Amino acid sequence: MDLTQALFNKLTGDATLVSLLSSYPTSGSPQFPAVFTAWPVPPDAARPYVYTRGSVADVAWDELAPNPAKGGTAPHLGRDISRDVFVIGDNHGSETEVETIAERIRALLHRGTLAISDGSPVMSQCAGPVTAETDDSLTARRLSVRIVAVED
What is the pLDDT of residues 28-45, one digit of tens each? Predict the structure, then answer.
């Protein structure tokens, strides 16, 4: 299950979000929305950008649930995954830019679905955005994304 690619596709597939972000590379072609899924973020990346990589929690769950189609109960298997998404911008004395981007990401990911290449049903929920710590030259927001994947 490639959650990184699914998140990248969801974020870069939204024209509104893309219009709020910088492009990378900043010159030449092709240029892509500044959404990074690997560390380190390129040092020449212009801000604002979005950064996410890896899961901060990944818990398997198993349960028995009624399944009339199978004549009784059937196991439901899945994963409860948490991942952080950061919006990083330059500190110009206002946080409106990163707040606007973070709220757009929340609108895309809260109570949404992600398209996973193996076809697993995946739903996402979003907490935040909240202020993320940075140095004084930057401003940032963090969103915690909960991804529930059913593996039946």
Answer: 768 899 999 999 999 999
- Cα separations (Å) of 121 from 41, 54, 79, 129? 30, 19, 11, 25
DSSP per-residue string spanning 77-120: EEEEEEEEEEEEEE-SS--HHHHHHHHHHHHHHTTEE---TT--
The predicted pLDDT at position 67 comes to 63
The angle, 0 to 180 degrees and rounded to 10, between the axes of the packed helices 96-109 and 3-12 is 120
Q: Give the pLDDT score at 118.
A: 74
Helix (H) or strand (E) holding 11: helix 3-12
3-150, what's its fold? Answer: STM4215-like (3.30.2000)
Where are the domains positioned within the chain? 3-150
